[in-house]
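REQUEST ID: PR-0412
SUBMITTED BY: lab tech R.K.
PRIORITY: routine
TASK: structure prediction, single protein chain
INPUT:
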Amino acid sequence: MTDNRRRIKGRPETESGTGTRSSPGLNVLMVAAEAVPFAKIGGLADVAGALPAELSEFGIGTSLFMPFYREIRLKGFDPRPTGIRFSLVHGGEKRDCRVLSLKRDGATFYFLDEPEFFEREWVYGPPGGEYPDSALRFSFLSRACLLAAQEMGLTPDLVHCHDWHAALVPLYMGTGEVDPGWKEVPSLLTIHNLAYQGQFGSQIFPALGLGEEVLEKGVLEWWGNLNFLKAGILTADAVSTVSPTYASEIVTAPQGMGLDSYLNVFGSRLRGILNGLDYEIWNPETDLDLVANFSSLDPAKRSVNLEALRRQLGLYPIAEAPLFAFVGRLVQQKGADIIARAMTEMFDRGIQLVILGSGEYDLEESLLAAAKPHRGMISVNIGFNDTLARRIYASSDFFLMPSRFEPCGLGQMIAMRYGCIPVVRATGGLRDTVSDLGSDPDQGNGFVFEKDNEVDLLGAVDRAARFFREGRALDVSTRIMSEDHSWRHSASIYAKFYREILAEKGGKTVEK
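STATUS: complete
OUTPUT:
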């Protein structure tokens, strides 16, 4: 293995070997399990795919490491070999890994090609489950990205890892296996959803390649088992999450889900930064999946999409019936059960409802059963179809998000981009992005309710339906299409936070 100790400690202005040229600003090494357009399961992919490009506008060069999944190859992406190969013993077996790369929008994406772990049909596991060796797969990601960076001579000023899949990166940075220079590199852990922590049985520990002192210190220990996210929180220099409100929620029970006491100690080093929206991907003016394109300057064509969607889904063409929509995972976190209990009363109010998503089997069945007596007014579509999702955003009058908790939420931002007024519960990023029209008719952009039950949801639905029938929805629909929820503002906050983390650790100083 190449000795990169001098290069890591010296932080040269240019890199040798297959590494990329340093930017005059910061160089960030980012690690994530998924990133658009290569592999996407959830909102994490949107962040990891879009943020590097926006950071480049602030003089920040990003190298993002992720697994080379089968899906990436099947999508037609052909990253080039870097010429870097290395081996490590992981999970009790020797693992050979080669590194591929692809440049995109000002960032370099590196793919760790270990076929036994990543050449599989699904990213995390079959629908509704996960592969039994998830602990090994993603601890490998956390180890291998550092070894790959060493081999290539990459010299980051900061390491930014995402969610539990990459949460062991700061822990591995402090071990004797990698160059000691990694201990001096600041690290940031972003938590996208605290509900997913990477909890595994303690019997897996010997396979992770960590010393016994890690167990003795309790960094990974979790009630007799292991918790990857806890380890990341305890070893990272700073933590961020994906909205200001969620950052304040997770330092207290029950939203802290057992980790609130560890998050509490971060103070200002715990930052809530709203996710943004990729305006090239989500653009009603150019979206090829729509029947008719439209914009805030030409909103009339939006009605063409509504007419087409009603025909496609078999909904009655009733002009006075507002169309409400839900697109997302059919799980209790998203409040899908609240919608199921409220559906009959929604029908009694003369509204139409379209649902698209998949998730818990019992919820899927209850939604289908509740919709069956109301054909022509309610359409439940189990599964996910990107084209249909886009047509729902572009056609519906109101978008339902009755989430019990919502770290950030992209659905409400996509909905507004397409002129669909959100109806949301006041939690997490929903509270940060949606303001109630009842409280602020001139600047409000949706309808907000407080409690996670069908009574409060129906109250917000009543207010929205009345707003629609009074002829007031079109002006708001047109106005919210012009709101700025792009990544630029969020990236500027990340850039500032990076500088603060570096300054606190005594690292590189960069002009604002």
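NOTES: The chain has 19 helices and 18 strands.
REVIEWED BY: pending
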